[in-house]
Each structure stands twice: as C-alpha cells, then as structure tokens.
Write a structure and sequence with these properties.
This protein has 14 helices and four strands. The chain is mostly helical. The chain has a two-stranded antiparallel sheet. It has a two-stranded antiparallel ribbon with strand order 3-4.
C-alpha cells in the first residue's frame, strides 16, 4: 500500500507556517553583512551538531563540542562521542551540497547520509549505509523500557521505497510539512540498526535545504528538541497513539521551527540596528581600535577599560586614551558598573 500520511492542517499549524514564511521573506529581502551570516552559520552548525548528537546520548557539553568542532583535541572525552559529533558536522556539509537543487532525494542519498553519520563510530555496529537485517527497538534512555518496536527487517526496503516515492511527489504540500512528515516517517520505519534519529533530523534539514527553506543555514532545530526531550518524544509517540494521525507531531514540529525563525529574525533586526548605529558613529572619525570597541559595546551595552583592551588588542594606556577621546566626542559616557560596584564602565550616549 502506498504511503499516505494522515494529518489535518489546524489553525495552530497554519499560524506557524505563516510566521515561518514571514521570516523567510525577511531573510530574502534584508541585507545582512556576510561576516555576520558566516559567524552565525558557524554558531548554528555547532549548536545543531551538539544538540542532535546529545539527544542520542553523547556526554559532551556544549563547550567541549565547540572546542572539538573548532579542531581542538580534548583530553578525557569519549572518542566515540567525539567521532559522532565530527561525523554530524560532515553530514551537515554533505546535505549543504544539495542547497536549492531540484534533484530527487533517493534511497541512495539517504543511505550515504547515514553512512557519513555513523561511519567509524562504536565499532561500526550500525552497519553504515545498509538497511537493518535484524529487529531493533526504541528504548527509553532512562528506564530501558521498550517504547516502540519498528517494522520487521523484511518490510524495511518496501516501506522505504514507498516513503521515498511519496517524498518526491508531494509537491502540493508546504516543504515545511514535508520535512516534518519525513522526519516522523523515517524514525517510524527505523530502517537502520542505529543512527536513525540523527539521520531523520538530517533528512528533514536536507528537504528544507533543497526547497529554498534553508533560512541561510541559521536555524538549529535539534536545540529545540534537546531542551524539550519529554515534549519531543511525546509528540512523536502521539502519532502512534492516535491511529497514525500526524497532526500533533506536525504542530510540535512547526512550532519548533517557528520559534527558531523568531530568534533568527530578532538577531537579524538587532544586527541591522547595531550596524546603523555604527555607521553613524563612524562619521565622527574613529580609529580601527575604537570601531572594534564600539561593535563590542553595541553587543553588550557597556565596556570597561579592560574589555576595551581585549576587544581592540591594545595596552591599557591606549585604551584609556581612546575611551577619553570618545567621551569628548559625545559618543560614550562613563558610569559605575552598579550601585555596589564602583568600577568605571562606558555606555553609549
């Protein structure tokens, strides 16, 4: 029987889709600086890689993940955790090659995506790129209780073929909903021995990337799931508890993406305001050190002489002279850090 997802586009789903489209339009229309986009893309990649692997049980914290993804070698970390994290980064690079491409998503692409994701991890027990030939189970991470038994191995090739056929023909549906449906259906089939959750989230992202919903690669949907794991698992299980009706899951999925879009828009608007303010201040004749310090100040709201030194890479005497110059020009003013801390800080006028 062909795969035919069951769901209803509720007012809640529709509202989220409208807000997601607004942010998409904002990102297409607004002029954001390339250096800001690049910086935010790097941060998003770190967050997505960390949170998606963290959901599956890696013990790395965010700072450790950031260091590893930046190429640093850390002592005392589980090497399988490290490898899973680095693999996820490679998998994100793999799906980025398909940005805006019209090519269909094939089972071969999905298999390759899985291979990149689990290759070399935990003795390659996940059998990279190959559909499972044994029965697997979804187990509660804390209680070790079996909460879902996927289809039998012999059913997997047929189910995947029907799923991929639907995926490439669902043109009359919002790509956001296609991505959400695909994420659930993939974890429901559970076609591989291990790595299904990560591959499902990557597949969902790949669909968004291919259909013009990449949002400049600034979103980190796995962060939303990782911070709300009970809600995430409950939303997935709701489909099975409601005769395979995906409405509840899709409400959760689009709400998470909408929240991500709101954060992206808020950050973008903040950067635009900061850039506008910086351009006005530049006309007052600042040197390169002062411009760096003003950028820091626009982000944080205040700056001390010590923070100026770090931001502008200069000695304290130079920092103090630059700060006094900006006070004289009417750009900043000095004030105490707080009522209990008399340390001098500088804020914009």
């Amino acid at each position: 029987m062909p795969f035919k997802p069951k769901f209803t586009i509720t007012p809640k789903i529709n509202k989220s889709l409208i807000e997601i489209e607004r942010v998409r339009g904002f990102l297409d229309a607004v002029k954001l600086k390339d250096d800001w986009i690049t910086d935010m893309q790097k941060k998003a990649l770190i967050l997505e890689s960390h949170h998606s692997t963290h959901i599956e049980g890696t013990a790395l914290n965010l700072e450790q993940a950031r260091s590893i993804l930046e190429g640093k070698k850390l002592k005392g970390v589980n090497r399988d955790d490290e490898k899973e994290l680095l693999n996820y980064k490679k998998a994100m690079a793999f799906i980025s090659k398909y940005l805006g491409k019209d090519d269909p998503i094939t089972e071969g692409i999905i298999r390759e995506l899985h291979k990149v994701t689990v290759k070399g991890v935990r003795g390659e027990k996940a059998d990279p790129g190959n559909y499972r030939k044994i029965q697997n189970y979804v187990v509660n991470f804390l209680t070790h209780e079996i909460i879902y038994t996927p289809p039998e191995p012999l059913e997997v090739p047929h189910l995947m073929r029907e799923f991929v056929n639907w995926l490439n023909k669902a043109e009359d549906l919002s790509p956001v909903l296609i991505a959400g449906i695909s994420q659930f259906q993939f974890v429901h089939i559970h076609p591989f021995i291990d790595g299904n959750g990560r591959t499902a989230r990557l597949l969902s992202t790949l669909i968004l990337y291919k259909t013009g919903y990449d949002f400049k690669r600034l979103f980190t949907i796995s962060e939303y799931y990782d911070k709300d794991r009970p809600g995430y698992y409950k939303a997935i299980q709701s489909v099975r508890n409601n005769a395979m009706d995906m409405t509840g899951w899709l409400e959760y999925f689009v709400a998470g993406l909408r929240l991500q879009m709101k954060e992206i828009r808020d950050k973008g608007e903040q950067i635009i305001k900061q850039d506008t303010a910086l351009q006005k201040i530049k006309r007052l004749g600042l040197n390169a050190r002062q411009e760096k310090a003003i950028k820091f100040l626009l982000k944080t709201g205040a700056i001390s002489a010590g923070e100026y030194q770090a931001a502008a890479s200069c000695i304290r005497r130079t920092a103090q002279r630059d700060l006094e110059d900006m006070v004289e020009k009417g750009i900043i003013k000095a004030r105490a850090k707080s009522q209990t801390d008399p340390t001098k800080h500088y804020v914009l006028l």
